[in-house]
Amino acid sequence: METKKNKRREFLKNAGSIGLFCALGTAGLLQCENRKERDYNYPPLLKKAPDGSLLKAGLIGCGYRGTGAALNFLNAGSNLQITALGDVFKDRVEMCNSQLKERKDIEVPEEKCFVGFDAFEKVIDSGVDVVILATPPNFRPEHLAACVKAGKHVFIEKPIAVDPVGVRSVMISGERAEAMGLSIVTGTIKRHQKDYIETFRQVVKGEIGDIVSANSYYNVGKLWHKNPRAEWSEMEAMIRDWVNWCWLSGDHIVEQNVHNLDTVNWFVGKHPVKAVGFGSRQRRLTGNQYDMFGVDFLYDNDVHYHSMCRQINGCQNNVSDLIRGSEGYTNCQNTIYRNDSSVKWIFDYGNEDQELDISPFDQEHVDWVTAIRTGKPVNETQAIAESTMTGIMGRVSAYTGKEVTWEEMMNSDLYLSPKHYHFGQVDVDKAVPIPGL
Amino acid sequence: MSLKVKIVGVILILLLILLYRSIEKLDAYTSRDSYCISCHVHTVADESWKKSTHYIAQTGQEIHCVDCHLPPKESSEYSQSKIKAGSKDLYTYYFKDHAKINWKEKSEIKNAVRFTPKSSCVNCHQNLFPFELSEKGKKAHLYYRRNEDKLYCINCHSGVGHGGRKATYEQNISFMKRKNDENKEVYSDSAILKRFENYIETIPGSSVSFEMIAIPAGSFEMKIYPDNDMERKPVSQKTIKLASFFMAEVELTWDAYRAFLTDVESEGRSQELEANDVDAISGATPPWGDPSQGWGMGQRPAISMTWQAATMYCKWLSKKTGKIYRLPTEAEWEYACGASMDWDSEESNRRVIYRDNSIGKTELPVNMKANALGLVNMLGNVKEFCSDWYAENPFRNKMDSVLTNPKGPAKGKERVVRGGSFRSKKKQVRSDYRESTQHDEWLKTDPQMPKSIWWYSDCRDVGFRLVCEWEGE
Question: Mean of the pLDDT values across residues B252-281?
């Protein structure tokens, strides 16, 4: 108990409250706590992270997004370096390294390039200060736990898991990171976009009244697929085709739609307690995922949130959110509407293109590095864990056709990955789920 | 500014400093363990504290009374709480009869939380997820994190401050494994019912026996009072006619309940991680923690089982004995209890185990005076489940003034419990005092999902009494 150094200040405070206590002569009057207002940790949204000593980052997962995240990190400020790369595939590490060379004139030496399922441990142990996790989502819980154990700040891409076991692991890692003062920022970019943040501020101020319902849409075209090749083991074929396998990606309701789920949870201020959903698969060529989902989420105050997402080419696309309140509604991004559809407030971008000055992909790294360098830790783990779990709850409901509750998910032992990772046959459920069984 | 004013100012500042210093000294003096113990009269608590992990912690750190029993010194509530607690202690020291203080009751969670602030626990235990925490611990603390407004640390970690009893924070599998005493006779047959008279039931395959009392058919007036306020006009009053039935002389004992647990355990999922089949749960799962509370078992009433578990027990016993055992209906219970007399405290002590004469736990049903029908502990000791759904007015839709064998509302959320317990106040141990189960509250700290359907994690004063149907000659 470190009370000595503050003893005098404390003493004064205590003495003061004794005095007050005597003056009032009653016990109950000292309670003046009234914290109804929503407290939210708004990011500082600097254009560049403040200068500081060299931060060496390791990148785990060197695919398209990982390489992108590494570049975003390097854009975030001065004295930032990528000093180690890790991936299960050699060609991925090489491709990433060549991109870094081409775009930023950085080349990670061969002894700091690690390949294989244990590459993450080697990256963490290679003398890095911070780690960027950008593998397929199923690997992240284990990787995050290892990073936190090693005391590293982490940028972790969304979603952070594919199953309840993984989500709980991430929640615990988040708690530990909190206790250790580590900064964990996730790839839910809207929380780092000034337009969304200012719109959120309006909603918190009560500009749309009490929230009564929400809708969101992540209806887009197909991402991509890779057919298996003779020279690939089943494991390699699956990982290279990871956006089509539930055990790797969590299905697109989790992997991609988590952006919307996170936005709505953020604005509503909590997670749903139940979900009833459906989904189907007509067009996918590989994997065992669905093409589309429609889920009715229910928050504890009977607020319904309908979330739809689809990945099929040639259909009506729409990526947006709509949250309705008693006194108006919002697109969450930049506008508050009155109930009669007239515009009540609109975010001022200050330019004709209606664009933010800084790419949100860079911004999240600016915010991360700022948190590390200013010693004001940011920890987004619980929020993204809840949003990921929201997606998993919707997915399980769609796969089974049954109502699924948050409590069930929080206590579910569902674990999708194989017990051990090795290049060979993969011992997971590969069937396309059939509801109603 | 004149010299006078300056001098007065300096003197005032000096006096203030002196006052602050004195308060500081006073605070330090009154925060010493020896000071607490000097006025506190609970030698038991002092002794048990010295045995606990919070006397000298594993880290070698010394922990003092005020570290747990007052909010952290940094908190704004510290001074206020200290003055409040101190005044209360002084009052008790000078004006209360120490022998009459029920320490056991004070140590019950719902009371203990009032003088063991959670803020003090977490002030030292800041990291709830140390790397060495077990999987079960992680799950339980995650559950706590998500239900912080409902839970206290001591909900699970009771006994860490006083006493050496190690609490169980996991499924208590060994609880199910205890076998009957080998030296006792194991019955092969159950009792045979020939006439409507008291009989001794024997559970086949066990050495458990108990007496069933014949309760002759009859009628009585059943009154439902608003909010259990017997001074007010009843919201409902009916003449209840009941057929004959048998009722157990005493509340179901641990011996009798454990005969069931050990019998069905093999069918259950006591090793739930091994069994992957998720079809019907046939047998009781192990409890979370120790439902017997370390009070002893044997002939002491079994407690903490859920209403479903009690109902399942009746089905099991019916199968074992070829009779129809079930929980009493609320009307049967009240009829068998008989009108409560206005007993003086001496007579109450002979008949009822309740708050004023219990030491915060259940008692063996020995030497207690039976009621007119021969039933022991209908009132007090443990609350008893009835089969009915609970409703504030169970006769709301009943037009007839006379009801025959009523079974209560068709639907509901909670079940009726009757008779009060060792924790009940005197006015709550009456034949007409109605209570209900508190499902969510009684499962508050169970971190399992689904929460146990067999054991309440947070109710230690509910049990049941068997009824056996009489189908006539």
Answer: 61
